[in-house]
């Protein structure tokens, strides 16, 4: 049986005449990549796959074949926690994804999109991608629930505000979420209840390393997400509160409570005003709780409708590209 060393030698021998032996060269490189991956050497696998000639005058390489190679490279880099290089190859696939017919490749594309967004802490995008994946009927039920759990986790870690609120609403109304371990924290966040330290610690125990990374102020992404959520929850209870008391409720000092409140107000994620002389924050609580829930439900319905329209458009583009170009893209 040929070792990876022997296969490498053969590839080197073929290199000067690769134009005449492109098919054989490709097959050998795919086998060599298999060998590297069996040894968990994903970097060398990716480097080997990158040398495969996918644009050639000697043979026709279909979009499905290109996507399979690029997807494999993308996954190798993700195994090495290198989302930057993974994204490079994901973007290559994006350019041809509508002409890719291989279902496993399309599903892997969706998963890699979610994982890259997750790794780069674009948690709202990651949550949406994981949720889409969780609704794919061709995936096993257990894997769909895992994707749903990941969608909840990423939504919890996302910055507090209207966009996150809409994503939480979609997840909360999904009947399957009650079967996930993250349902308890999802429910409390959606209903604007203050999270206790014990609940946060239990949730943190299941997070990945990059989800526990420190931010510029020394806190974790989860610390920041929880603090912002609890600040929003406090705004539903109090008309105004001193930063001293607010800090006590949030578990931070008064200065940090003021910084977070100011940042959220400036980014339109919290409605209120700050009286720095008195050391007090005033929350805008004119809207009733029922009205807020009605507006939240309205936003969720509009978002769902937009997503369904996008799905239909994508389906038309894939199944009837000529009609799409004539009537939609024009």
From TrEMBL:
It is found in: Cytoplasm; Nucleus. Residues 119-288 form the PCI domain. It holds the Pfam family PSMD12-CSN4_N. Its main location: cytoplasm. InterPro entries: PCI_dom, PSMD12-CSN4-like_N, PSMD12/CSN4, TPR-like_helical_dom_sf, WH-like_DNA-bd_sf, WH_DNA-bd_sf. Belongs to the CSN4 family. This is COP9 signalosome complex subunit 4.
């Amino acid at each position: 049986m040929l070792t990876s060393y022997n296969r490498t030698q053969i590839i080197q021998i073929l290199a000067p005449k690769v134009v005449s032996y492109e098919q054989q060269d490709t097959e050998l490189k795919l086998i060599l990549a298999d060998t590297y991956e069996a040894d968990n050497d994903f970097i060398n696998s990716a480097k080997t796959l990158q040398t495969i000639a996918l644009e050639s005058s000697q043979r026709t390489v279909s979009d499905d074949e290109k996507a399979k190679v690029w997807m494999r490279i993308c996954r190798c880099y993700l195994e090495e926690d290198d989302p930057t290089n993974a994204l490079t190859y994901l973007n290559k696939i994006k350019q041809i994804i509508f002409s890719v017919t291989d279902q496993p490749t399309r599903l892997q594309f969706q998963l890699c999109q979610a994982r890259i967004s997750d790794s780069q802490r674009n948690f709202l995008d990651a949550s949406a991608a994981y949720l889409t994946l969780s609704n794919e009927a061709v995936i096993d039920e257990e894997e769909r629930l895992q994707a749903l759990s990941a969608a909840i986790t990423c939504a919890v870690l996302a910055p507090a505000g209207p966009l996150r609120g809409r994503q939480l609403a979609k997840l909360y109304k999904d009947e399957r979420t009650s079967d996930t371990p993250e349902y308890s924290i999802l429910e409390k966040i959606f209903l604007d209840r203050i999270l206790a330290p014990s609940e946060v610690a239990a949730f943190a125990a299941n997070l990945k390393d990059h989800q526990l990374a420190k931010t510029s102020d020394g806190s974790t992404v989860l610390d920041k997400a929880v603090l912002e959520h609890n600040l929003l929850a406090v705004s539903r209870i109090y008309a105004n509160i001193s930063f001293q008391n607010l800090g006590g409720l949030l578990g931070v000092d008064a200065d940090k409570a003021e910084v977070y409140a100011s940042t959220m107000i400036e980014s339109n994620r919290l409605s209120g005003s700050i009286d720095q002389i008195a050391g007090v924050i005033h929350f805008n609580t004119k809207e009733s709780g029922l009205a807020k829930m009605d507006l939240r439900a309205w936003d969720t319905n509009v978002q769902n409708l937009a997503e369904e329209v996008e799905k239909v458009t994508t389906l038309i583009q894939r199944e009837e590209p000529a009609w799409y170009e004539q009537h939609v893209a024009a």
